[in-house]
Amino acid sequence: MRRAFTLVEMLVALAVFGMVSVGLFSFTAMSLRLVGRNLATNHTHEVMRISNQELLYNLHASASAFQLITFDGTTYADATPTATTDQDPFTQQYISTRANGVRFRLAAGGPYKLTVTTTSTSTSLTFDFGVGGTLPYVPEVGDKVVLPLLSREFDITAVTKVPTTGSTTGTVTISVAVGFNVDATTVGNVTTGYFYREVAYTVYNNQLRYHSNYTGAAKGNFLLVRDKVTSPKPFSVLFSSSTALSSDGLNLRLSLEFYDTNYSARTYASGATTLQAIVPPRVQPTDVISTNAS
């Protein structure tokens, strides 16, 4: 006699098969989701790490104190930080009011040799800007020149002779008299100058922007460092107390959040990454005392 499955046996087998199938499907779906979330997180972390290496490097290399700035879509302006009662969890110092930008100075060129003797009343300085037949730096109005031998710094108000590769000497006009008689012609006498340029980082329209020349009309030009930035005001400075009247501007607090909308559209919540850091300049005291700009 031929044997066959009874209806009850088939129903039981079908139920067991269905439960196993649902379990396998749920496991597969969960595994795919976890893999997707890990990919989203790793992608966001990698993009943030690469795009912010230059940001952190430049902030650490600041040769001046940090000055907070604001940008409203039309105008750049300095922001006066004031202490708040909000404390930084890492340093226990008090966080200032936030801003969407920060400016500071970076070394742009030097040391360059002073080639023309000055008097104490001279307001012109002439340097040889050539380096091995090249011209790595050309001074601009708004830059600063520091003469370490004299322990003095000056704003450059005009470039009366622009150096070229064919004629590497250039002359700049400084804001005040040099104050010393500098002999640049006697053999063995060497006086050098270092040049510093104003740069800035701003956040606007969900973009982290780098302004490689934050002087005059050039301050509106920028390079895109990172998009999808969701922190509207990530920059602040630290105060020693909540009632402090001023800050030295030597410790910048950075709090940036990035949210990758390409991944968040797939409901991967871990597509967000936050960068928090306290950034002091490498040089303290700073090379350039003032951060003033035109």
Q: What do you see in this structure?
A:
This protein has helices at 7-60, 261-264; strands at residues 67-71, 76-78, 83-87, 94-96, 101-114, 124-128, 144-147, 152-161, 169-174, 192-204, 207-211, 223-227, 235-239, 252-259, 272-279. It has 294 residues and is α+β, with helices and mostly antiparallel strands. The chain has two domains: 42-103 and 198-279, no CATH class; 104-196, Elongation Factor Tu (Ef-tu), domain 3, CATH 2.40.30. A hairpin with a 4-residue loop joins strand 1 (67-71) and strand 2. The chain is elongated, with a radius of gyration of 29 Å. The termini are far apart. The model has no long low-confidence stretch (mean pLDDT 85).
Shape: elongated
Strand content: 25-35%
Q: Return Rg in Å.
A: 29 Å
Low-confidence stretches: none
Domain tally: 2
Q: Tell me the total number of β-strands.
A: 15
* Helix count from the secondary structure assignment: 2
Distance between the termini: 104 Å
What's the main sheet like?
A: 6 strands, antiparallel, barrel
Please provide the ordered H/E string of secondary-structure elements.
HEEEEEEEEEEEEEEHE
Brief summary:
This protein is an alpha+beta fold and 294 residues long. The protein folds into 2 domains: 144 residues, no CATH class; 93 residues, Beta Barrel (Elongation Factor Tu (Ef-tu), domain 3), CATH 2.40.30. The chain is built from 2 helices and 15 strands.
